[in-house]
Structure formats: C-alpha cells, structure tokens
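[Discussion] Sanity-checking designs against the backbone

I'm trying to build intuition for which residues belong where. Below is a structure token string of 429 positions. I'd appreciate it if someone posts a full sequence so I can compare it with mine line by line.
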C-alpha cells in the first residue's frame, strides 16, 4: 500500500492529478457484449439459455429458469434463524428509511389563476440484478427491492447467476422477504438483455437496477434508452479521512473491508499525520494475512490502495472532493465540523463508529451508490429511482389572456407557426 506525500510541491497541481475521467468504453468487451445482447433480443429464451449454459454451466428450460416454490422452501430451511432475523431487521430499517424519503405531490395556483404542480406515479415493472459470482449478496436484494416496493412498484423481477445450478439460499430468502414477484436463474449480460427486451420466460421491464461486473455494466449501457437504468457501476471504493484520533487498526480494518470485495476495489486513506499513515499501513499488512479473502484483498491493496498525507483536514477534504468516492468515512474528532465542506460523495459516514459495514447492511440507506467519480453528478439508489413525476398544467382564462401573446411571439421566434396558431385561434374566438 503506497504512502503518497502531498505536503510538498504545488498542492493544487497534485490535486488535479487525482481527478478521474472515467471511460466506460471498452471496445473489445463492448463488441462481445453487444453480440450477447443482440442475440437475446432476437432469439429470446434460446439465446438466453445458450449463454447461461456456456457461462454458468447449467442447462435451463422455460420450466426451470424461474425459481420454484419448492426451491424457496428448501432455501428457507437452509438459512439459520439468526440470519433470517438479521435480514428481517435490516429490511425493516431499509423500509423505514425510504418511507421517510418519499416525496409528496403538490399543486399551487399562481397569481393569474393557473393551476400548476406535479403528480407522482411509480414505475410498473422493475428488474433487479444481484451478483452471484465470487460472492452472493442478500443485502443487495434488500437494498434494491425494498425501495422499489416502497415507491409503489407492483412487479419486481430479480435475476441472479446460478453457477452450476446453485443460488445462495439467503439470496432467495431475502428476495421473498423483500417482496419480489419472481426470481430467475440467469445472470451476466444475457440477463440484462432479457429484462430489457423480454423473452418467452422473462418479462420486459421499465427499469433495471443493481450492481454487476464489467459485462453487466456494459450491457446496461447498451440497453439504456430501451429501458432506464440506475447507473453504470464501477469497482467499489472507500475513502477514509482521519486525523489520527482513532486507533490505526480501526481504519486499517475499514480499508480491508473494502478491498475484500474484489481485485478492482479501491481503498484510500487521507490523513494529516505521516506517523498515523505509517501505523495504518503496518496494520493493513498485519491484518491482511489473516483474511479468508486475502488473495483478493491483497491484489486490491497492492494495485489501488493508497494513503495520502496532507497538511490539514481542509486539504484532506479537497482530496476527497477531487476523487468523489462512493463511500466517505470521516474518522475525525468533529466530523460535523467538516461535513459542510464535502461536495462529492455517494454516502458519508460520520464518526469513527460509523463504519461502512453499517451502510452495507443495516443502517437504512441503500448501499447501491455512484462509483468511479460519478458522485459528482448522481445520488444513491432510493425511492426516487422508481418514481415518475408528470407535470400538471391547468391554464385559467385570465392566464390564457395574459400569457397568450408571449407564447405566440416565442413560437414565431422559433419558426413554429402552428404552435403560435394553436394559441391564436383560441384568442381570436
């Protein structure tokens, strides 16, 4: 894990080098994914099952692609009561958070008597992608499905890979706890295409949400426009700002918690203490050896792990704002004092007890967050992702007379004569 001293030289210039211009263009992979997407669009189940057999080593049919009630019952029996209780607690807290975030419809009457406002309508069908490769994530099921159900989405369809025919039982328990309509045993780019276009077995949806690997992300990019998507997710990341007021092993553990996700995960510490930076590095090396997923974490720490040393906490915030991390932990004595200076982050964890793991599982907000610097312009997954807000416009007689000439003049200025005439014909009557 590299320690990089930003205290020397021109800080602003070095800071500029931290800003990321992320490209989601991978010509070779995109060409391959496009073939998969087009095949599923054209051939439906036939292509879907062919690619599932190729990648997941399992043969599916229209009768077996959907998880059956018997399979759900089997999964229920395999998951411990303790885990089911923990999932239920997390589900309750996620539901409570998103119910509080629901927006309200609103109308008002302006000074001319026009009634204006907006109404709220949920999407009708949503597809949720849940990874199932190197690790299975029942928490992601709750974090994606529950906001959709709170928003009022009637049908939520979940797809997840089933390598060698196996689906993590806790994923199925979480799915039906959250209220999915059906679970399908397909993953990868072919599953995204199936949700986007529909097949004989899988319904077409209005929106696809949930994280996945590079093939899933590119597939989402390719089908956008035919359906909506939440985001194009990159590798998961955490940035910890610490003033050295917390134990080094706490911060090291948080960095490793991120690194164990996958080899591309990003774990960064920014501190105003060189001594603390050295302590954290030593703790990372020591604790890394004890991890079950140390091979994965070791690659992530070696390739993307960084410790930046700066002069002040203000400089640390500047580093964070340049990177725009998915997760930002403020492990400092007074996190609320520096919070107003934070501009870009997916989720912000205040104080040394607010470790990212709470956000991943049980705090309440969704852990599906903007990555790769996209926190500069996007927000976490929430009920807003599943709502439409059509405008309401009711023009009064006085409003029509008062504003009509302006509409006519603006329409003529844009060369749209019929627009102008549609108002003029009513004024002339």
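Best answer:
Here's mine. Compare freely.
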């Amino acid at each position: 894990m590299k320690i990089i001293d930003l205290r020397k030289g021109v800080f602003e210039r070095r800071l500029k080098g931290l800003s990321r211009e992320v490209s989601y263009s991978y010509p070779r992979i995109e060409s391959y994914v496009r073939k998969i997407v087009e095949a599923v669009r054209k051939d439906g189940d036939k292509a879907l099952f062919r690619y599932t057999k190729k990648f997941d080593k399992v043969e599916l049919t229209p009768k077996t692609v959907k998880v059956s009630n018997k399979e759900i019952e089997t999964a229920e029996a395999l998951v411990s009561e303790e885990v089911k209780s923990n999932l239920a607690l997390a589900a309750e807290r996620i539901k409570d958070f998103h119910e509080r975030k629901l927006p309200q419809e609103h109308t008002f009457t302006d000074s001319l008597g026009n009634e204006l406002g907006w109404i709220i309508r949920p999407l009708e069908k949503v597809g949720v992608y849940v990874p199932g490769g190197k690790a299975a994530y029942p928490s992601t099921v709750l974090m994606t499905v529950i906001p959709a159900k709170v928003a009022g989405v009637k049908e939520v369809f979940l797809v997840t890979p089933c390598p060698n025919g196996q689906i993590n039982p806790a994923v199925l328990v979480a799915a039906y706890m959250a209220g999915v309509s059906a679970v399908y045993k397909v993953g990868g780019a072919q599953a995204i295409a199936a949700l986007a276009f529909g097949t004989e077995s899988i319904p077409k949806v209005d929106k696809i949400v949930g994280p996945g690997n590079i093939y899933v992300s590119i597939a989402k990019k390719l089908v956008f426009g035919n359906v909506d998507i939440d985001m194009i997710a990159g590798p998961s990341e955490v940035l910890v700002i610490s003033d050295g007021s917390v134990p080094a092993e706490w911060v090291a553990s948080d960095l490793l918690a991120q690194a164990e996700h996958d080899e591309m995960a990003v774990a960064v510490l920014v501190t105003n203490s060189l001594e603390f930076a050295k302590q954290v590095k030593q703790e990372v090396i020591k604790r890394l050896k004890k991890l079950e997923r140390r091979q994965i974490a070791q690659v992530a720490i070696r390739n993307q792990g960084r410790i930046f040393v700066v002069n002040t906490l203000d400089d640390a915030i500047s580093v964070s704002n340049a990177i725009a991390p998915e997760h930002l932990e403020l492990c400092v004595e007074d996190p609320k004092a520096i919070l107003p200076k934070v501009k870009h982050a997916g989720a912000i964890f205040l104080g040394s007890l607010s470790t990212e793991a709470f956000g991943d599982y049980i705090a309440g907000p969704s852990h599906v967050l903007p990555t790769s610097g996209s926190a500069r312009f996007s927000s976490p997954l929430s009920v807003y992702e599943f709502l439409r807000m059509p405008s309401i416009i009711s023009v009064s007689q006085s409003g029509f007379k008062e504003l009509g000439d302006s509409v006519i003049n603006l329409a003529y200025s844009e060369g749209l004569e019929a627009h102008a005439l549609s108002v003029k014909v009513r004024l002339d009557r």
